[in-house]
Structure formats: structure tokens, C-alpha cells
Amino acid sequence: MTTFDAQQSPARKPGEAVTSATTGYPTPAWRKAYREGSRPDLRVPYREVVLTNGKTVPLYDTSGPYTDAAYEPDVRRGLPPLRDSWIRQRGDVEEYDGREARPEDDGIKHTAPRGGDLRNLDAVFPGRARRPLRGRDGVAVTQLAYAKRGIVTPEMEFIALREGLEAEFVRDEVARGRAVIPLNVNHPEVEPAIIGTNFLVKINANIGNSAVTSSIEEEVEKMTWATRWGADTVMDLSTGRNIHTTREWILRNSPVPIGTVPLYQALEKVDGKAEELSWEVYRDTIIEQCEQGVDYMTVHAGVLLRYVPMTARRKTGIVSRGGSIMAAWCLAHHQENFLYTNFEELCDILASYDVTFSLGDGLRPGSIADANDEAQFAELQTLGELGRIARERGVQVMIEGPGHVPMNKIKENMDLQKEICDEAPFYTLGPLTTDVAPGYDHITSGIGAAMIAWWGTAMLCYVTPKEHLGLPNRDDVKTGVITYKIAAHAADLAKGHPGAQAWDDALSDARFEFRWQDQFDLALDPETARAFHDETLPAEPAKTAHFCSMCGPKFCSMKISQKIREEHGDGSTAVATDAGFDAEAVAGMAAKSEEFAASGNRVYLPLAD
Ligand SMILES: C[C@H]1O[C@@H](n2cnc3c(N)ncnc32)[C@H](O)[C@@H]1O
Ligand SMILES: Cc1ncc(COP(=O)(O)O)c(N)n1
Ligand code: SF4
Ligand SMILES: [Zn+2]
């Protein structure tokens, strides 16, 4: 039988289900290094950029063990369980048998169409057997519960070293609910990271299959690829085949927290019929995913029955998948959202695994015309209320935000969210600042993302060039991640995060000193920087040349600037004169001046007819 997997990965043989992880850094100048903490098993990874002048620049690193030259990756076994002893040493978790895996977890019906079992048996995760953990007697084993009790966990110390801050500060931000550390006790492979407005801005990359395309292998590769370029978390938004197994492969191999929208899998379990959903099916799915190790879950509990009519006159209705599913359920039963009515029980389940809530914006605007409308802000009020209930019960909380919002309406979103949601971390999709550029929505949204992050958004959910058009592939994932790293870092700079500017300064120095190799290596994407440079000046001597093909040797302003400094010191006492330039440069400038005069000395030229 032909499956999509077979079409997508023709080279795969039985028994070789998944083999790929992207290993190694994109340039030999990046080296994995570690900062040692207070105990031998507390080693915080970072990336060291080794420059040609002998200096090194330390950078935050999300790529996991795959980029450590001493590590031998084996995606069939999974990553080492870094946090296992930290979790067990606290003495508050118990191992138990766990929920039995069922065929429907992977979308397999008892009566499979055309008589076949649709499960790709090659794909079952072959790694070590494990029994799930949970808080003993249902106790909250969350970083929030520990923080409130004044405990600095090894995870908090790890984060403090990673961010260059005091561990006590980390604890205090978590205790106040102003930051979250999404780390399920069943996901010991993760290198701890924090999401909060007073920390480095984080970015999330969405991956996952759909009913139309992609294989487990591709999704594992997208995950390692996304984290290699800097994704701080990854959401598996699979809605196609093998949902459970795809997620198992991703979790066991992921060095970053994994988020999901459990409602998608619950809907698969009822054959895609929203009205057949129930709290029981949803609850079962939540437990399945808690036991697997999902670190944070989008829950669309703020889509209340009475808010649904508020979307009736919108240009684009409800664009959130989860939001549209819950709205359909509420209307079909004329009952209140079961996520809202069972919210306390949901909190208690999440608390016993330390799964963080990402309270979903099911009524976010999906077009510029719908931005900041009544439905959107009504839901935000409810998310604020639910956030307080969750934290009260020890569960960590983030709040999801929009969407499609023009630049003049972005700040109001951040201001309202802070006020309504008690400064809980805001996690926004973009926002996209215009609707007119399908194919370039990483840019329309990167603009909004930079703005909202500057004003305090803690994590940015990326948007790829494929948004509104199709499922992103590996290249789209990279483009999305790099775009969002730019937005996040631009915000870190604007917020004055200590240390953020050192990276820019190092790159600017390399640029001004014509250390081309260092300029490439300090880039977010060294491969592209080098390739663009080499497109016009590929020869080795060009790597030390004092110009590039943009201006050429005679018009290189940085070369001219250097010369000024050599001949006139820093120039502060110089009188305006062209004596410091070489004859060629002076001639070049004169030619440009004549060209300008010939055009009538006008800066804006009339349009050609
Ligand atoms: C909420 C956002 O999630 C993204 N999204 C939904 N499903 C997937 C997937 N399988 N892969 C990547 N992104 C996805 C879309 O960009 C949507 O706008
Ligand atoms: C920032 C962010 N990321 C993912 C989702 C889930 O998607 P959906 O609401 O469409 O189900 C969301 N609501 N917000
Ligand atoms: S992205 Fe495609 S599938 Fe998703 S809501 Fe838009 S049109 Fe529908
Ligand atoms: Zn959209």
C-alpha cells in the first residue's frame, strides 16, 4: 500500500524508520562550550564564536547535544535524560504504569479503511522503555510551586547561568507568575529555558504534519533544524497520521521544550467531528500527552459560548483552529465550552506533571479589519481570569496573543494583556502587520513581532513564508526561525538587555576591520552571509580585501573612514577638506557630484511617463 511516507521518503527501508538529525554547526568557528554550575551534573551549554583575532564571543545556544563534537547522536535512542536525577531527587514524584497506548492515538480506527492497519510499524519509537512520572498524591510538582516555597531548583540555577542573571531573580520572577519554565517531569531531555519579559526574548517554531503531507522523519528533522538555527521551543501541531508516534520521536530527541494543541489530537479521535468531542476524550488525550512529556499545551478555554456571536460580522471569522473547533462544539450543544467548565480539573492534571498552560487565543483576529475587536478583547478578559485560577493551583501560565494587527493597534494589545493578565508572559503569533503579502508573511509578521517584543512580549511564535499557502518545509522553517531571531534580538537590544549589544559590537568591529570571515561567523546565518559575499568575489584574497562588490575599492566608505583615522586621528579637530582622500576617491566623488548636478540637483526625480 502506498503511504504518504513512502512517497516523501523513497529511500527509506524497513527497520530504518527515522535516522536523520541535523548535526554539527554551520561553521567551524562555532564551538560548543559549557559553564559549570554548583554540581557536576549542572553544565550549561553555550556557543562560542572563535574569531580570527583570537577573541571569542559567547552566544545563547538552543541546538542541544547535536552540536557537541563529543556527542554521538542516535535518534533511535533519543537524547540523554539530563534532568532525570534532578526530578527524582526532589522525592515528590512517583513512577506508575501509565495509560495504555491505543491504536486511535495514532488515528487508527478499529475498522481501518480497505482492511489495513494504517500504522507504519517501522515508525514506532525504538528507544528505551520508560514508565511515566507524576506528582505523588496529585501534588503540584511545578517550578511555580517550588518558586513560591522559596526553593531555587537546579533548573532555575541552570537558567540563571544561561541568561547571565542571579538564580534568586529567576526564582522570584517565576513565583510572581511573570515568567514560566515549561518542563514536564516526563521530558528530562530538555535543557531548561525561561520565558518572561525580563529575560531574553524567546521564539517558537511550529512544525508537524497535516493530513496532506509529511513524514515522521521530516518532522524530526524540522525539529533539529529549527533548534540548530535558534528556536527556543517547538510546537508539534500535527493533525495527520501517526500523531502519537510522531510526537514521541520529537520529544525523545528534542533539547527544547515541546508544545502542542491537544484539541487537535482529540478531534482526530472523534474522526474530525467537532460536535462529538467531549471532556472525556479531551481528558484522555491530555493524560496521554502529559505522560509522553509535552511541556506546554495550548488550551482554548477562553472561547465562551456568548463570545461566538461577536465574531459574526468579522471579515475573516474565527481563524484559530482550536477556536473554530470549540466554537463549533459550543454552538452544536448550546453549552458552555467544556475546557472552561472543567478548568479546575484540568489545572490539577497539568500541575502533577508540571505542564505549562498556553491559554489559547481562539478568537484572535485573522485580518487587519478584525484587529482589536470586541470578541478578541472579551476573550482576553477570560484568559486573565483563567490564568489566576491556574496559578492559584500551582500551574504555570502563558497567554497567547494575535494574529493580524496593524502597527498602530499593536501596543494596545500588550498594554491590555499586562493589565488583564497580571504580567503573565505574552506569547504572540507575529502579529502580521498587513494582509497583502502572502509568500512574505515571515516579513509582515516579523515587523509586528519586533514591535510587540520591544514592548514586553516574552515569546514570539514564528510565521514562515508559507503562511496561508501551505505546510512549511525545512527551508521555510529556517527562514521563519532566522526572521524571528532578528525580531527577538532587535527587541533585546531596544530593551537594553545586558549583554545583547556585545554581539552587535563584535560584528561591527569585524565589519569595520574587514575581517570578512568573522563577519560571516558572527552572523545569525553564516552560510547565507558567506554565499552572498562569494557570489561576486569568491577568490580567497577577497576575504582580506578592504571592500566588497557593493561599492568597489574606490568607493568603500569604511576603507575611506579608516584612512581618515590613520591620517587625521579620530578626525575631531579636522577642518573639512578632501586632502585626506586618495586621488581616485576624490575623482569618484567629483563624478558623482557632476551626475547629481546634471539631474538638476534634485533629490526626488520626476517619474518617467
Ligand atoms: C497557529 C499557527 O500555527 C501554524 N501551523 C499550524 N499547523 C502547522 C504545522 N503543521 N506546521 C507548521 N505550522 C503550523 C500556522 O502558521 C498557524 O497560523
Ligand atoms: C502563538 C500561538 N501559537 C499557536 C496557537 C495555536 O493555534 P490555533 O489557535 O490556530 O489552534 C495559538 N493560538 N497561538
Ligand atoms: S492556512 Fe489553509 S487550511 Fe489553514 S485556515 Fe488558512 S486556508 Fe484553511
Ligand atoms: Zn493569518
From TrEMBL:
Top-level class of the enzyme under EC nomenclature: lyase
Cofactor: binding comment: Binds 1 [4Fe-4S] cluster per subunit. The cluster is coordinated with 3 cysteines and an exchangeable S-adenosyl-L-methionine.
Positions bound to Zn(2+): H404, H468
Binding site for substrate: N206, M235, Y264, H300, S320, R321, G322, D361, G362, L363, R364, E400, Y427
Pathway(s) annotated for this protein in UniProt: Cofactor biosynthesis; thiamine diphosphate biosynthesis
Polar residues bias: start-end ranges: 1-10
Catalytic activity line of the entry: 5-amino-1-(5-phospho-beta-D-ribosyl)imidazole + S-adenosyl-L-methionine = 4-amino-2-methyl-5-(phosphooxymethyl)pyrimidine + CO + 5'-deoxyadenosine + formate + L-methionine + 3 H(+)
Segments of skewed composition (Basic and acidic residues): 95-109
The protein's required cofactors: [4Fe-4S] cluster
Domain ThiC-associated: 27-94
Domain of life from the UniProt record: Bacteria
Record keywords: 4Fe-4S, Iron, Iron-sulfur, Lyase, Metal-binding, S-adenosyl-L-methionine, Thiamine biosynthesis, Zinc
EC code: 4.1.99.17
Residues covered by region (Disordered): 1-38, 95-120
Role: Catalyzes the synthesis of the hydroxymethylpyrimidine phosphate (HMP-P) moiety of thiamine from aminoimidazole ribotide (AIR) in a radical S-adenosyl-L-methionine (SAM)-dependent reaction.
Protein name, UniProt field: Phosphomethylpyrimidine synthase
Provenance organism: Kitasatospora kazusensis
UniProt gene name: thiC
